[in-house]
Amino acid sequence: MKILLNFVPMIPSAGRRMASRLRGLLAYEDWVYLLSLLVPLLVYNVALKVVRIATQLNVPGPLGFADQLRSDVFFNLGYAALWIGLFVAVRGRFGRAALLAAFHLACLLLPVLTTAAHFYYKTTGSTLDYSLIVLTLTSFEEIRGVIASEMTGLHWGLLSAVLFYGIAGPAVAVRLASGDWHVPVWAEGPSRPRGAWRPALATCLAAGAFVLLSALPSATGVGNYFARDAIVNMVLNEVATARIEEPQVVSSVSVEDLPTDTRLVPTPRAEKRNVVLVFLESVRARSATPYNPELETTPFLDELAEDSLMAENAYAVVPHTSKSMVAAHCGVEPPLDTKMTESEPDAIPARCLPELLEEQGYSTVFFQSATENFERRRALVANFGYEEFYPLESMDTEGHHRVNYFGYEDDIMLEPSRRWLEEHRDGPFMATYLTVTSHHDYNVPPDFETKEFSDKELVNRYQNTVHYQDAFLKKLFEQYKELGLYDETVFVVMADHGEGFGEHGLYQHDNTIYNEGIKIPLLFHDPRRFEGGRVVETPVQNLSVLPTVVDLLGYRIEGGEYRGRSLLDPLEPRPLKVSCWVENRCLALIDGDEKYIYHFGHREEEYFDLSEDPLEKDNIIGRQREERIDRLRNELLFWEAYVRAMYEQHIASLRQEETTATPMEGTSPAGD
After folding, report:
1. 451 and 419 in contact (C-beta within 8 Å)?
2. What is the mean pLDDT of residues 630-659?
3. Coiled coil: which residue ranges (predicted)?
4. How many CB atoms lie within 10 A of CB 157?
5. Residue 81 to residue 101: CA distance in whole angstroms
6. What distance lies between CA 403 and its chain's CA centroid?
7. For 223-234, how does the pLDDT look when each residue is reduced to its tens digit (9 = 90+)?
8. Are the beta carbons of 189 and 26 closer than 8 angstroms?
9. What is the pLDDT of residue 388?
10. Are 26 and 34 in contact (CB under 8 A)?
11. pLDDT surpassing 90 at residue 138
């Protein structure tokens, strides 16, 4: 006890020595200036992570909580140490001026990124990637409605406060602490003693050590995507992406193997009947009555299914609208990227259904109740081969209601559809309709009567939008009957993808690799066939739409082979591959009733027995042989490499053709 009492007077002395050393590194005002911005920034970023941890699907115990918070704490400590070290090292006026500008810019950018990552996670259950930031910046006009829909007055107020404090807060803090205005560039501070570079170097090395600690994987098995600090996650994902894109899986594609020279050849049973495709936005199979009889959201679709060919286990290749439409229209997998490669001129390595039918004398048209600006939809529709395109901008909005940031209620398509059909009723034609009402943020027109489908408010709103789309579908079919076109038309009704509502911690669809995101309604309705209904139980994908429609019309395909199979043929089960929309986020393989999910090492792999566990709640990866999982993983990576190579080879061949077709400068074409 006496020893402890003797130690007490030493504490103030040690504190004075420490303060003296700190003042030897930076002036008092400089310390106040830097810490008044760095400390709130650390507290803010860590607080956001605490909120995400506390509100996730499975809240961890104390050890797990600390493990999931570790990366954010270490990264922010490293971030603070780096700037302190730089200010200690740089003393010159011009160097300090440049450093101060960089300091404020970085301290404004960091909370913007972490705030964006936080709200993106709260909205979708997914972490923010660098590729999504690039997509946002390059396509801001297209998606500003998405951002605006999520921004409340509180969000704008918080953003304004952060920006104001990030610019003026430190100077105000110095004024309050010292009674004088001070900015680190205005004064040189104390003269730098000999060897002062050592503490600067030590501080920067400490910063590096903290950042390295923040990059370590989770120690408790939680997904690294979630456990890592948002900024660290973005950087490491880019590093991992570069590594994955190297030829880990050897896959080569010959241009001759691609269905780019296909054509339709009529068989004796060929008839030039009309074709109608209807894409129901974001309708998951479990929310449609034919797939879930206890839920009466789609009574008309259920009635239609009674005399249709219905795929009981249909899956989207990628749960994203433009990607799903590529698979259905063109019979090949879409590009597995967020760059919208499918909208580049002639980028799809296949001849698509509208183009094939146009050669047979068909008129083609595409209607959508959404804006044409999102994801260059006009360019995509042109790539499919449609002659005419009618987006929201071409329609009369009077008397119709906006239902989300992308478009208006789907009934807005009915009048343009009627006018076009009356002009082309002599056919043959192909008409496609893309709805939008069921897209986030799930609103129906105010005059539509809603029902109680779920006790969860968000899910109930969604189910009512599905119910509304069913009513639209009924009106569309009645239109075809009124115009005398119904009996001469083959209809395909499908969803582009499903929708998640936190069943696996994920919301919406882009990265929802579980069945709520990828299992979709798919049925073919032909008034002359399928009386009493026919069900295909074998798992299939929307790749089968093109070959099935061609088969129903009585044509055969020559000049190449598509990746999908006609559902009219007996189907041997074969593995299906699915990808998340964001690159290198997740892949899935469905083989009968078994499903394997690969998360690129960012979280534990998953394996489900869908016959026993259709909701994918029980991960039985631990019961599988390691060799089998290795084989499934390699099969998925091979498929991913194959799809990437399909597009790379096709685009390379187009460039080569352009080079060959363009005469060299100074020469003239042959024959001149």
Report:
1. no
2. 87
3. none
4. 10
5. 17
6. 21
7. 677 778 888 877
8. yes
9. 96
10. yes
11. no
Q: pLDDT digit string (tens) for 314-350?
A: 999 999 999 999 999 999 999 999 888 899 999 999 9
User: Helix/strand/coil (H, E, C) string of 1-20?
Assistant: CHHHHHHCCHHHHHHHHHHH
Token digits for 453?
């489908």
Average pLDDT of 497-517? 92
The residue to which tokens 């969860």 are assigned = 456
CA neighbor of 166 nearest in space, from 116, 110, 241, 250: 110
Q: How many C-beta atoms surround the C-beta of residue 425 within 10 A?
A: 13
* Rounded Cα gap, residues 257 and 250, in angstroms: 17
CA torsion, ordered 540, 542, 544, 547, to nearest 10 deg: 170
- Of 328, 334, 643, 315, nearest to 509 by C-alpha is 315
Lowest pLDDT segment from 76-85, 92-101, 518-527, 543-552:
92-101
Compute the distance between CA of residue 153 and CA of residue 173 in angstroms, rounded to an integer.
27
Closest CA to 171 of 33, 291, 265, 66: 33
- The whole-chain average pLDDT of the chain stands at 85
H-run or E-run covering 241? helix 230-244
Assess contact for 369 and 413: CB atoms under 8 A. yes
Among the listed ranges 32-46, 104-118, 240-254, 276-290, which one has the minimum average pLDDT value?
A: 240-254
Q: How far apart are the C-alpha atoms of 103 and 109, rounded to whole Å?
A: 10
**Domains observed in the chain:** 19-244 (no CATH), 269-568 (3.40.720.10)
Q: How far apart are CA 612 and CA 443, in angstroms?
A: 35
Tell me the helix, strand and coil percentages in the chain, rounded to 5: 50, 10, 40
Three-state SS for 473-500 is HHHHHHHHHHCCCHHHEEEEEEECCCCE
What is the percentage of the chain residues whose pLDDT exceeds 70?
A: 86
Q: What are phi and psi of 440, to 5 degrees?
A: -50, 130
HSE at residue 492, side-chain half, CA atoms within 13 A, is 32
Query: Tokens 């490293």 — which residue?
Result: 78
How many whole angstroms separate alpha carbon 524 and alpha carbon 314?
12
Residue 254 per-residue DSSP state: -
Question: What pLDDT is stored for residue 222 in this prediction?
Answer: 66
DSSP 543: G
CA–CA dist 544, 257 (Å, integer):
18
Q: What residue has token string 């690129």?
A: 600
| Residue 156 backbone phi and psi in degrees, to 5 | -65, -40
Quickly count: other Cβ atoms within 10 Å of residue 671's Cβ: 4
Lowest average pLDDT, out of 88-92, 184-188, 332-336, 344-348, goes to 184-188
Separation of alpha carbons 302 and 177, rounded Å: 71
- Rounded CA-CA distance 247/238 in Å is 16
Return the higher-pLDDT residue of 406 and 153.
406
Per-residue pLDDT tens digits for 529-584: 999 999 999 999 999 999 999 999 999 999 999 999 999 988 888 999 999 998 88
314 bridge partner residues: 520, 540
In the block, which residue shows the tokens 């792999």?
605
Sign of the Cα pseudo-torsion (396, 402, 406, 412, in order): negative
Q: Is 240 exposed, middle or buried (0-12, 13-18, 19+ CB in 10 A)?
A: middle
User: Which residues lie below 8 Å from residue 510, measured CB to CB, with a gap of 6+?
Assistant: 124, 126, 319, 320, 580, 581, 582
